[in-house]
User: What shape does this take?
Amino acid sequence: MNKKGETTRWQRLWSWLKRPLALGIPIGMFLLVLVGTSFQAMMVVSNQNEFCFSCHLTMDTIVQEYQASSHFGDGEDIPATCSDCHVPHPFIDKMIVKTIALKDVYHMIAGTITKENFEEHRPAMAESVWKAFKKNDSANCRHCHQGENFDLAKQPQRARLNHEKIEARGETCIDCHQGLTHNRIVVR
Assistant: This one.
């Protein structure tokens, strides 16, 4: 208030701003929680095998190959999900892969990759996945296959000897284990 008892322009402005702030802060917090919860729910849903199968089951043989592999599980072992192998665990890398994967959804919707032509495109797609594994030193493999899950002493002699030399040879898991979960693809 000024000397005459009147409110100043700044005081009137502040009293006007306080009303929307009083309502805006709780609404903003609610929206922030809603967006965060929705984002997390989408991350969980898109990491489920059912999400991956929703396209791949009708489009190609990848699901059947995975279900026939040791990574699918036998009821005793804990299976590796599609995202365990194909989606990086660090957050930023995960977001990059999920953003890039939107092109797969586009190609499915646009019909450029179909069940009929999938095998033609498969070598290039497999090569892309192998390069990513090679680039990050098979980080997703190593996420699970460590400690008790990768005890060299429990491996057959040939496997143990090869695993002991892998680093010296400049190799990573995918160099030897292409075709472990999905059929080995011949890249021309």
